[in-house]
Amino acid sequence: MTGCVDIDRTPLLGGRVTLFQPQKGYRAAIDPVLLAASVPAVAGDAVLELGCGTGAALLCLAARVPGLAVTGLEIQPLAADLARRGAVESGLVDRVAVLEGDVAAPPADLRLNGFDHVLSNPPFWPAGRHTPSPSGHKAGSHGEGAGDLEGFVRASLRLLKSRGRLTLIYPAERLDHLLSLLTGRFGDIRVLPLWPRAGVPAKRVIVTARRDAKGPLVLLPGLVLHGDGQGYTPPVEAILRDGAALEL
Description:
Blueprint: E1 7-12, E2 17-22, H1 31-37, E3 46-50, H2 56-64, E4 69-74, H3 77-89, E5 96-100, E6 115-120, H4 136-142, H5 149-159, E7 160-171, H6 175-182, E8 186-195, E9 204-211, E10 218-219, E11 223-224, H7 234-242
Parallel strand pairs: 3-4, 3-6, 4-5, 6-7, 8-10, 8-11
Antiparallel strand pairs: 1-2, 7-9, 8-9
Helix pairs in contact: 1-2
């Protein structure tokens, strides 16, 4: 499947996870690791990642929480193949399955109302808002096309159990768009700002919400990513290196 594409091995969670990803194009940074840390799944839960890419988030989540059944859905064959390869290399193949398919028309293998948790790092920018990357993999990862954010929310509604939880990471400047899609469909919405440094506006937010739930929106204190210099703050280091959870 990888053909002539050059592939890197990237260790995550202090080496507990091996991620395979193309040397060129979109490459996972800390976003999927923080996303995985924020999913409050427990052993026995069924978890689905919509648009799993090469598998960074679903592999980190499966490694952090033993006993999960984790499924990834990915439209790009190369990325799906690399996610499966990462599951094998990370010793998670018995608990991780990766399906190829479109979020807008999920494959029949995904049971309706069958998941306790859905997570996603969905495409960020609407068509025409961003300059597409020359790499098809990166362009598909960052730009909204047929699988736009509303499509991700609709798919989550169909696939989550009642009271199941959706967790997303998204640009802070588009938070209003995300909340407009969740309101009336999800409740118990919690928003965690991710600040690059103390005193700097957030560039990303993690948002979690429950299907068929009620309750006010809660804006959480937030997480500062970097301290002095280029290093991560201790709480972020614990997530990235030790697999600590991020409670929302």
